[in-house]
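Obj.: predict assembly geometry.
Materials: sequence records (below).
Method: joint structure prediction, all chains together.
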Amino acid sequence: MAVEDKMIDIIVEQLSVDRDKVVPGASFVDDLGADSLDLVELIMAMEEEFDVEIPDEEAEKIVTVQNAIDFVAKIQD
Amino acid sequence: MKRRVVVTGIGLVTPLGVGTQETWNALINGKSGVGPITRFDASDHASQIAAEVKDFNPELWFEKKQAKNLDAFVQYGVAAADMAWKNSGLSITDENVDRVGVITGCGMGGLPTIEEYHSVLQKRGPRKITPFFIPRVIPNMPSGHISMRIGSKGPNLTQTTACAAGTHAVGEAFRHIAYGDCDIAVTGGTESVICPLAVGGFSAMKALSTRNDDPTTASRPFDRDRDGFIISEGAGMMILEELESAQKRGATIYAEVIGYGQSSDAYHIAAPPEDGEGAARCMKAALRDAGLNPGDLDYINAHGTSTPLNDKCETQAIKTVFGEHAHKLMISSTKSMTGHMLGAAGGIEAAFTTMSLYNGIIPPTANLHNPDPNCDLDYVPLTAREVKLETAMSNSFGFGGTNGVVVFRRFA
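Observations (raw C-alpha coordinates):
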Protein backbone atom coordinates (compact mmCIF):
# COMPACT_ATOMS: atom_id res chain seq x y z
CA MET A 1 0.00 0.00 0.00
CA ALA A 2 2.82 2.35 0.90
CA VAL A 3 4.36 1.98 -2.56
CA GLU A 4 1.05 2.64 -4.26
CA ASP A 5 0.34 5.80 -2.28
CA LYS A 6 3.82 7.18 -2.79
CA MET A 7 3.67 6.33 -6.50
CA ILE A 8 0.39 8.19 -6.91
CA ASP A 9 1.88 11.21 -5.12
CA ILE A 10 4.81 11.26 -7.54
CA ILE A 11 2.59 10.96 -10.60
CA VAL A 12 0.25 13.71 -9.41
CA GLU A 13 3.23 15.96 -8.73
CA GLN A 14 5.24 15.22 -11.87
CA LEU A 15 2.40 15.28 -14.37
CA SER A 16 0.27 17.89 -12.58
CA VAL A 17 -2.86 15.74 -12.93
CA ASP A 18 -5.87 15.29 -10.63
CA ARG A 19 -5.42 12.50 -8.12
CA ASP A 20 -8.71 10.80 -9.11
CA LYS A 21 -7.38 10.30 -12.65
CA VAL A 22 -4.40 8.30 -11.40
CA VAL A 23 -6.09 4.88 -11.44
CA PRO A 24 -4.19 1.59 -11.85
CA GLY A 25 -5.10 1.13 -15.50
CA ALA A 26 -4.30 4.71 -16.54
CA SER A 27 -1.72 5.04 -19.32
CA PHE A 28 0.80 7.83 -18.75
CA VAL A 29 0.70 8.90 -22.39
CA ASP A 30 -2.90 8.24 -23.41
CA ASP A 31 -4.73 9.09 -20.18
CA LEU A 32 -2.43 11.37 -18.20
CA GLY A 33 -1.06 13.56 -21.00
CA ALA A 34 2.63 12.70 -20.65
CA ASP A 35 5.06 13.12 -23.56
CA SER A 36 8.35 11.26 -23.93
CA LEU A 37 10.28 13.83 -21.89
CA ASP A 38 7.69 13.77 -19.10
CA LEU A 39 8.14 9.97 -18.97
CA VAL A 40 11.91 10.27 -18.55
CA GLU A 41 11.43 12.74 -15.72
CA LEU A 42 8.77 10.57 -14.11
CA ILE A 43 11.11 7.58 -14.09
CA MET A 44 13.84 9.77 -12.56
CA ALA A 45 11.45 10.84 -9.81
CA MET A 46 10.58 7.19 -9.11
CA GLU A 47 14.27 6.30 -8.87
CA GLU A 48 14.74 9.16 -6.45
CA GLU A 49 11.75 8.36 -4.24
CA PHE A 50 12.29 4.61 -4.00
CA ASP A 51 16.09 4.71 -4.18
CA VAL A 52 16.24 2.29 -7.08
CA GLU A 53 17.83 2.33 -10.49
CA ILE A 54 15.49 1.65 -13.39
CA PRO A 55 17.39 0.62 -16.54
CA ASP A 56 16.11 2.03 -19.84
CA GLU A 57 14.89 -1.36 -21.08
CA GLU A 58 12.78 -1.72 -17.92
CA ALA A 59 11.59 1.88 -18.07
CA GLU A 60 10.19 1.28 -21.55
CA LYS A 61 7.82 -1.33 -20.15
CA ILE A 62 6.35 1.06 -17.59
CA VAL A 63 3.39 2.49 -19.47
CA THR A 64 0.60 2.43 -16.89
CA VAL A 65 0.27 3.34 -13.22
CA GLN A 66 -0.05 -0.36 -12.34
CA ASN A 67 3.16 -1.20 -14.29
CA ALA A 68 5.03 1.34 -12.19
CA ILE A 69 3.66 0.08 -8.87
CA ASP A 70 4.39 -3.54 -9.81
CA PHE A 71 7.91 -2.74 -10.92
CA VAL A 72 8.86 -0.96 -7.72
CA ALA A 73 7.16 -3.58 -5.52
CA LYS A 74 9.11 -6.32 -7.30
CA ILE A 75 12.47 -4.58 -7.15
CA GLN A 76 12.02 -3.79 -3.44
CA ASP A 77 11.21 -7.42 -2.52
CA MET B 1 9.42 47.37 -53.21
CA LYS B 2 9.54 47.85 -49.45
CA ARG B 3 6.21 47.63 -47.64
CA ARG B 4 5.27 49.90 -44.73
CA VAL B 5 5.28 48.39 -41.25
CA VAL B 6 3.38 49.52 -38.15
CA VAL B 7 3.14 48.57 -34.49
CA THR B 8 -0.30 47.20 -33.56
CA GLY B 9 0.29 45.51 -30.22
CA ILE B 10 2.42 45.92 -27.09
CA GLY B 11 2.99 43.68 -24.05
CA LEU B 12 5.37 44.33 -21.15
CA VAL B 13 6.67 42.40 -18.15
CA THR B 14 9.10 44.64 -16.27
CA PRO B 15 10.39 45.47 -12.79
CA LEU B 16 7.98 48.42 -12.94
CA GLY B 17 4.92 46.21 -13.42
CA VAL B 18 3.41 43.16 -15.06
CA GLY B 19 1.43 44.81 -17.84
CA THR B 20 1.88 47.59 -20.36
CA GLN B 21 -0.11 50.31 -18.61
CA GLU B 22 1.29 49.47 -15.16
CA THR B 23 4.82 49.79 -16.51
CA TRP B 24 4.14 52.97 -18.47
CA ASN B 25 2.47 54.73 -15.53
CA ALA B 26 5.44 53.99 -13.28
CA LEU B 27 7.84 55.05 -16.04
CA ILE B 28 6.37 58.47 -16.71
CA ASN B 29 6.24 59.09 -12.96
CA GLY B 30 9.96 58.43 -12.63
CA LYS B 31 9.59 55.37 -10.39
CA SER B 32 12.55 53.06 -9.91
CA GLY B 33 12.25 49.27 -10.13
CA VAL B 34 15.58 48.70 -8.40
CA GLY B 35 16.01 47.12 -4.95
CA PRO B 36 18.15 44.63 -3.03
CA ILE B 37 18.62 41.25 -4.75
CA THR B 38 16.10 38.75 -3.36
CA ARG B 39 16.60 35.86 -5.83
CA PHE B 40 19.68 34.58 -4.03
CA ASP B 41 21.92 35.54 -1.12
CA ALA B 42 24.10 38.21 -2.70
CA SER B 43 25.91 39.20 0.51
CA ASP B 44 29.30 38.13 -0.82
CA HIS B 45 28.85 39.93 -4.15
CA ALA B 46 30.19 43.41 -4.90
CA SER B 47 26.83 44.42 -6.44
CA GLN B 48 23.86 43.41 -4.29
CA ILE B 49 21.10 45.28 -6.11
CA ALA B 50 18.93 44.50 -9.11
CA ALA B 51 15.65 45.37 -10.78
CA GLU B 52 13.57 42.22 -10.30
CA VAL B 53 10.15 41.53 -11.77
CA LYS B 54 7.69 41.38 -8.86
CA ASP B 55 4.29 39.72 -8.57
CA PHE B 56 4.57 37.67 -11.76
CA ASN B 57 2.13 34.78 -11.51
CA PRO B 58 3.06 32.09 -14.08
CA GLU B 59 -0.28 30.37 -13.58
CA LEU B 60 -2.00 33.22 -15.40
CA TRP B 61 -0.25 31.92 -18.55
CA PHE B 62 0.76 28.31 -17.98
CA GLU B 63 -0.48 25.07 -16.53
CA LYS B 64 1.48 24.01 -13.47
CA LYS B 65 3.34 21.21 -15.23
CA GLN B 66 4.40 23.48 -18.08
CA ALA B 67 5.43 26.34 -15.79
CA LYS B 68 7.89 24.20 -13.84
CA ASN B 69 9.71 23.29 -17.04
CA LEU B 70 10.03 26.87 -18.30
CA ASP B 71 12.79 29.21 -17.22
CA ALA B 72 11.69 32.69 -16.19
CA PHE B 73 13.02 34.22 -19.43
CA VAL B 74 10.66 31.99 -21.40
CA GLN B 75 7.73 32.70 -19.08
CA TYR B 76 8.23 36.47 -19.30
CA GLY B 77 8.64 36.34 -23.08
CA VAL B 78 5.52 34.28 -23.64
CA ALA B 79 3.48 36.39 -21.20
CA ALA B 80 4.55 39.65 -22.87
CA ALA B 81 3.89 38.19 -26.33
CA ASP B 82 0.46 36.99 -25.23
CA MET B 83 -0.40 40.48 -23.97
CA ALA B 84 0.85 42.07 -27.19
CA TRP B 85 -1.05 39.58 -29.35
CA LYS B 86 -4.31 40.17 -27.46
CA ASN B 87 -3.68 43.90 -27.58
CA SER B 88 -3.40 43.71 -31.39
CA GLY B 89 -6.76 41.95 -31.74
CA LEU B 90 -5.23 39.51 -34.24
CA SER B 91 -6.06 35.84 -34.53
CA ILE B 92 -4.55 33.01 -36.53
CA THR B 93 -6.60 31.95 -39.55
CA ASP B 94 -6.10 29.50 -42.43
CA GLU B 95 -5.14 32.50 -44.58
CA ASN B 96 -2.52 34.08 -42.30
CA VAL B 97 -1.13 31.07 -40.43
CA ASP B 98 2.17 30.90 -42.33
CA ARG B 99 2.40 34.68 -42.73
CA VAL B 100 2.89 35.31 -39.00
CA GLY B 101 6.48 35.13 -37.71
CA VAL B 102 8.16 35.30 -34.33
CA ILE B 103 11.53 37.07 -34.05
CA THR B 104 12.74 37.70 -30.52
CA GLY B 105 16.00 38.60 -28.82
CA CYS B 106 17.68 37.11 -25.77
CA GLY B 107 21.24 37.68 -24.62
CA MET B 108 21.93 34.76 -22.34
CA GLY B 109 19.16 32.12 -22.17
CA GLY B 110 18.57 29.96 -19.12
CA LEU B 111 21.67 30.72 -17.07
CA PRO B 112 19.94 30.12 -13.68
CA THR B 113 19.06 26.58 -14.80
CA ILE B 114 22.59 26.00 -16.09
CA GLU B 115 23.86 26.98 -12.63
CA GLU B 116 21.39 24.67 -10.92
CA TYR B 117 22.15 21.65 -13.07
CA HIS B 118 25.88 22.17 -13.08
CA SER B 119 25.64 21.67 -9.34
CA VAL B 120 23.43 18.58 -9.80
CA LEU B 121 25.94 17.17 -12.28
CA GLN B 122 28.88 17.74 -9.94
CA LYS B 123 27.17 16.35 -6.87
CA ARG B 124 25.01 13.56 -8.25
CA GLY B 125 26.15 12.69 -11.76
CA PRO B 126 24.75 12.86 -15.29
CA ARG B 127 21.79 10.54 -14.68
CA LYS B 128 20.17 13.25 -12.53
CA ILE B 129 19.96 15.82 -15.32
CA THR B 130 16.33 16.50 -16.19
CA PRO B 131 15.24 15.88 -19.81
CA PHE B 132 13.91 19.44 -19.70
CA PHE B 133 17.37 20.91 -19.11
CA ILE B 134 18.14 21.69 -22.76
CA PRO B 135 14.65 22.99 -23.65
CA ARG B 136 14.79 25.17 -20.55
CA VAL B 137 18.08 26.88 -21.39
CA ILE B 138 18.34 27.45 -25.13
CA PRO B 139 17.80 31.13 -26.00
CA ASN B 140 15.38 30.53 -28.87
CA MET B 141 12.79 28.82 -26.66
CA PRO B 142 10.74 31.99 -26.14
CA SER B 143 10.26 32.24 -29.92
CA GLY B 144 9.37 28.55 -30.05
CA HIS B 145 6.85 28.73 -27.22
CA ILE B 146 5.27 31.91 -28.58
CA SER B 147 4.65 30.23 -31.94
CA MET B 148 3.21 27.15 -30.21
CA ARG B 149 0.95 29.31 -28.09
CA ILE B 150 -0.55 31.46 -30.85
CA GLY B 151 -0.20 28.85 -33.59
CA SER B 152 1.90 30.96 -35.98
CA LYS B 153 3.80 29.03 -38.66
CA GLY B 154 5.91 31.74 -40.34
CA PRO B 155 9.61 32.50 -39.75
CA ASN B 156 10.86 31.73 -36.24
CA LEU B 157 14.16 33.34 -35.22
CA THR B 158 16.14 34.53 -32.23
CA GLN B 159 18.84 37.20 -32.10
CA THR B 160 21.50 36.63 -29.45
CA THR B 161 23.44 39.87 -29.78
CA ALA B 162 23.83 40.55 -26.04
CA CYS B 163 22.37 43.89 -24.97
CA ALA B 164 21.39 44.74 -28.55
CA ALA B 165 19.38 41.52 -29.06
CA GLY B 166 15.93 43.05 -28.57
CA THR B 167 16.63 45.90 -30.97
CA HIS B 168 18.06 43.60 -33.61
CA ALA B 169 14.96 41.42 -33.25
CA VAL B 170 12.64 44.38 -33.85
CA GLY B 171 14.77 45.54 -36.78
CA GLU B 172 14.82 42.09 -38.35
CA ALA B 173 11.06 41.72 -37.87
CA PHE B 174 10.62 45.09 -39.61
CA ARG B 175 12.78 43.88 -42.51
CA HIS B 176 10.99 40.54 -42.73
CA ILE B 177 7.65 42.29 -43.14
CA ALA B 178 8.97 45.08 -45.37
CA TYR B 179 10.44 42.52 -47.79
CA GLY B 180 7.50 40.14 -47.69
CA ASP B 181 8.82 37.17 -45.70
CA CYS B 182 5.79 37.56 -43.46
CA ASP B 183 2.96 40.06 -42.91
CA ILE B 184 2.87 40.03 -39.12
CA ALA B 185 5.58 39.41 -36.52
CA VAL B 186 5.73 39.03 -32.77
CA THR B 187 9.00 40.69 -31.80
CA GLY B 188 10.99 42.11 -28.90
CA GLY B 189 13.27 40.72 -26.22
CA THR B 190 13.29 38.74 -23.02
CA GLU B 191 15.86 37.99 -20.31
CA SER B 192 16.13 36.69 -16.75
CA VAL B 193 19.60 36.07 -15.35
CA ILE B 194 19.57 37.58 -11.87
CA CYS B 195 21.66 34.68 -10.58
CA PRO B 196 25.11 34.38 -8.94
CA LEU B 197 27.01 33.57 -12.16
CA ALA B 198 25.66 36.54 -14.10
CA VAL B 199 25.93 39.03 -11.26
CA GLY B 200 29.42 37.76 -10.43
CA GLY B 201 30.43 37.81 -14.08
CA PHE B 202 29.24 41.35 -14.81
CA SER B 203 30.76 42.45 -11.50
CA ALA B 204 34.13 41.02 -12.46
CA MET B 205 33.99 43.29 -15.53
CA LYS B 206 33.30 46.24 -13.18
CA ALA B 207 30.14 46.82 -15.17
CA LEU B 208 27.64 46.87 -12.26
CA SER B 209 26.79 49.65 -9.84
CA THR B 210 27.83 49.01 -6.25
CA ARG B 211 25.59 51.69 -4.76
CA ASN B 212 24.12 48.97 -2.55
CA ASP B 213 22.94 51.30 0.19
CA ASP B 214 20.73 53.35 -2.12
CA PRO B 215 19.28 51.09 -4.84
CA THR B 216 16.65 53.41 -6.31
CA THR B 217 19.23 56.05 -7.22
CA ALA B 218 21.89 53.61 -8.42
CA SER B 219 20.92 53.76 -12.09
CA ARG B 220 21.82 57.34 -13.03
CA PRO B 221 22.66 57.57 -16.72
CA PHE B 222 24.62 60.65 -17.82
CA ASP B 223 25.11 61.72 -14.18
CA ARG B 224 28.67 62.41 -13.07
CA ASP B 225 28.22 60.02 -10.09
CA ARG B 226 27.13 57.01 -12.14
CA ASP B 227 29.11 53.88 -11.36
CA GLY B 228 27.72 51.07 -13.51
CA PHE B 229 24.50 49.45 -14.68
CA ILE B 230 21.82 47.70 -12.66
CA ILE B 231 21.10 44.16 -13.73
CA SER B 232 17.43 43.75 -14.58
CA GLU B 233 15.01 41.29 -16.14
CA GLY B 234 11.70 41.07 -17.95
CA ALA B 235 10.32 41.10 -21.47
CA GLY B 236 9.00 43.62 -23.97
CA MET B 237 7.12 42.36 -27.01
CA MET B 238 5.36 44.11 -29.86
CA ILE B 239 3.26 43.07 -32.82
CA LEU B 240 4.56 44.49 -36.10
CA GLU B 241 2.19 44.37 -39.03
CA GLU B 242 2.18 45.34 -42.67
CA LEU B 243 0.32 48.65 -42.96
CA GLU B 244 -2.49 47.53 -45.31
CA SER B 245 -3.22 44.49 -43.18
CA ALA B 246 -3.53 46.70 -40.09
CA GLN B 247 -5.70 49.29 -41.86
CA LYS B 248 -7.98 46.68 -43.42
CA ARG B 249 -8.94 45.34 -40.01
CA GLY B 250 -9.18 48.77 -38.37
CA ALA B 251 -6.38 48.05 -35.88
CA THR B 252 -5.05 50.61 -33.44
CA ILE B 253 -1.71 51.76 -34.87
CA TYR B 254 0.75 52.91 -32.20
CA ALA B 255 3.52 54.04 -34.54
CA GLU B 256 5.22 53.25 -37.82
CA VAL B 257 8.63 51.57 -37.97
CA ILE B 258 10.59 53.46 -40.61
CA GLY B 259 14.26 52.55 -40.27
CA TYR B 260 16.79 50.02 -39.02
CA GLY B 261 20.55 50.33 -38.77
CA GLN B 262 23.31 47.95 -37.76
CA SER B 263 27.03 48.23 -37.28
CA SER B 264 30.05 46.70 -35.61
CA ASP B 265 32.76 48.47 -33.60
CA ALA B 266 35.51 45.97 -34.52
CA TYR B 267 37.29 47.34 -31.47
CA HIS B 268 36.95 45.54 -28.10
CA ILE B 269 34.99 42.72 -26.40
CA ALA B 270 33.12 45.09 -24.08
CA ALA B 271 34.23 48.73 -24.37
CA PRO B 272 33.06 51.09 -27.10
CA PRO B 273 35.65 53.26 -28.86
CA GLU B 274 36.04 56.65 -27.11
CA ASP B 275 34.41 58.57 -29.95
CA GLY B 276 31.52 56.08 -30.22
CA GLU B 277 32.12 55.84 -33.96
CA GLY B 278 30.44 52.43 -34.26
CA ALA B 279 27.30 53.74 -32.57
CA ALA B 280 27.43 56.84 -34.77
CA ARG B 281 27.61 54.79 -37.98
CA CYS B 282 24.70 52.72 -36.71
CA MET B 283 22.51 55.78 -36.09
CA LYS B 284 23.45 57.17 -39.52
CA ALA B 285 22.54 53.88 -41.16
CA ALA B 286 19.15 53.85 -39.42
CA LEU B 287 18.42 57.47 -40.42
CA ARG B 288 19.37 56.70 -44.02
CA ASP B 289 17.09 53.65 -44.04
CA ALA B 290 14.30 55.81 -42.61
CA GLY B 291 14.84 58.50 -45.25
CA LEU B 292 15.41 61.12 -42.56
CA ASN B 293 17.97 63.88 -42.25
CA PRO B 294 19.56 64.22 -38.81
CA GLY B 295 17.62 67.46 -38.26
CA ASP B 296 14.33 65.56 -38.69
CA LEU B 297 14.70 63.54 -35.49
CA ASP B 298 12.91 64.62 -32.29
CA TYR B 299 13.76 62.05 -29.61
CA ILE B 300 16.25 59.29 -28.79
CA ASN B 301 15.55 56.54 -26.28
CA ALA B 302 19.24 56.12 -25.47
CA HIS B 303 21.12 52.95 -24.67
CA GLY B 304 22.13 54.99 -21.57
CA THR B 305 23.30 52.15 -19.35
CA SER B 306 24.72 54.30 -16.50
CA THR B 307 28.21 52.93 -17.02
CA PRO B 308 30.94 55.59 -17.11
CA LEU B 309 32.00 54.62 -20.64
CA ASN B 310 28.69 54.05 -22.43
CA ASP B 311 27.03 57.32 -21.55
CA LYS B 312 30.04 59.40 -22.50
CA CYS B 313 30.65 57.56 -25.79
CA GLU B 314 26.96 57.50 -26.72
CA THR B 315 26.76 61.26 -26.16
CA GLN B 316 29.81 61.75 -28.37
CA ALA B 317 28.27 59.54 -31.04
CA ILE B 318 25.03 61.54 -30.96
CA LYS B 319 27.03 64.75 -31.44
CA THR B 320 28.89 63.21 -34.37
CA VAL B 321 25.66 62.24 -36.12
CA PHE B 322 23.47 65.24 -35.32
CA GLY B 323 25.96 68.12 -35.08
CA GLU B 324 24.25 71.30 -33.84
CA HIS B 325 20.88 69.53 -33.81
CA ALA B 326 22.19 67.26 -30.99
CA HIS B 327 21.47 70.11 -28.57
CA LYS B 328 17.87 70.41 -29.77
CA LEU B 329 17.15 66.68 -29.55
CA MET B 330 15.41 65.25 -26.52
CA ILE B 331 17.14 62.15 -25.17
CA SER B 332 16.27 59.92 -22.23
CA SER B 333 17.41 56.68 -20.71
CA THR B 334 14.56 54.59 -19.34
CA LYS B 335 17.20 52.27 -17.84
CA SER B 336 17.35 54.89 -15.08
CA MET B 337 14.10 53.28 -13.88
CA THR B 338 13.99 49.77 -15.36
CA GLY B 339 17.66 48.94 -14.89
CA HIS B 340 19.37 47.14 -17.75
CA MET B 341 17.26 44.29 -19.02
CA LEU B 342 20.14 43.05 -21.23
CA GLY B 343 18.73 41.14 -24.23
CA ALA B 344 15.23 42.34 -23.34
CA ALA B 345 16.27 46.00 -23.21
CA GLY B 346 15.85 46.66 -26.94
CA GLY B 347 12.36 45.16 -26.95
CA ILE B 348 11.24 47.14 -23.93
CA GLU B 349 12.77 50.36 -25.19
CA ALA B 350 11.31 49.98 -28.68
CA ALA B 351 7.93 49.65 -26.96
CA PHE B 352 8.62 52.72 -24.80
CA THR B 353 9.68 54.71 -27.88
CA THR B 354 6.48 53.68 -29.64
CA MET B 355 4.41 54.69 -26.62
CA SER B 356 6.20 58.03 -26.40
CA LEU B 357 5.14 58.77 -29.98
CA TYR B 358 1.58 57.52 -29.42
CA ASN B 359 1.02 59.26 -26.07
CA GLY B 360 3.09 62.41 -26.67
CA ILE B 361 5.05 61.91 -23.46
CA ILE B 362 8.79 61.40 -23.03
CA PRO B 363 9.75 59.38 -19.96
CA PRO B 364 12.47 61.11 -17.93
CA THR B 365 16.05 60.15 -17.16
CA ALA B 366 15.63 59.57 -13.43
CA ASN B 367 18.40 60.37 -10.93
CA LEU B 368 20.13 62.81 -13.28
CA HIS B 369 20.93 65.49 -10.70
CA ASN B 370 24.48 66.40 -11.67
CA PRO B 371 25.20 65.92 -15.36
CA ASP B 372 28.66 64.69 -16.30
CA PRO B 373 30.45 67.59 -18.08
CA ASN B 374 30.98 65.17 -21.00
CA CYS B 375 27.22 64.64 -21.15
CA ASP B 376 25.83 68.07 -21.98
CA LEU B 377 22.68 67.34 -24.01
CA ASP B 378 18.98 67.49 -23.09
CA TYR B 379 18.39 64.15 -21.33
CA VAL B 380 14.90 65.12 -20.06
CA PRO B 381 16.13 64.93 -16.45
CA LEU B 382 13.95 63.81 -13.54
CA THR B 383 10.52 64.72 -14.93
CA ALA B 384 8.57 63.36 -17.89
CA ARG B 385 7.88 65.85 -20.66
CA GLU B 386 4.64 66.19 -22.61
CA VAL B 387 5.51 66.95 -26.19
CA LYS B 388 4.08 65.96 -29.55
CA LEU B 389 6.78 63.95 -31.27
CA GLU B 390 6.98 63.08 -34.96
CA THR B 391 10.06 60.87 -35.02
CA ALA B 392 12.09 58.88 -32.51
CA MET B 393 14.90 56.33 -32.40
CA SER B 394 15.87 53.60 -29.96
CA ASN B 395 19.57 52.75 -29.51
CA SER B 396 21.14 49.50 -28.30
CA PHE B 397 24.80 48.52 -28.14
CA GLY B 398 25.98 45.06 -27.13
CA PHE B 399 29.15 43.39 -25.87
CA GLY B 400 31.16 42.10 -28.77
CA GLY B 401 30.83 45.56 -30.31
CA THR B 402 27.48 45.03 -32.00
CA ASN B 403 25.09 47.94 -32.48
CA GLY B 404 21.43 48.26 -33.44
CA VAL B 405 19.12 51.26 -33.94
CA VAL B 406 15.44 51.34 -34.88
CA VAL B 407 13.59 54.48 -35.99
CA PHE B 408 9.86 55.12 -35.56
CA ARG B 409 7.42 57.79 -36.76
CA ARG B 410 4.16 58.91 -35.23
CA PHE B 411 1.33 57.44 -37.28
CA ALA B 412 -1.19 60.01 -38.35
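Conclusions so far: The interface with chain B takes residues 14-16, 37-38, 40-41, 44 of chain A (CB under 8 Å).
To do: check interface contacts against the pulldown list.
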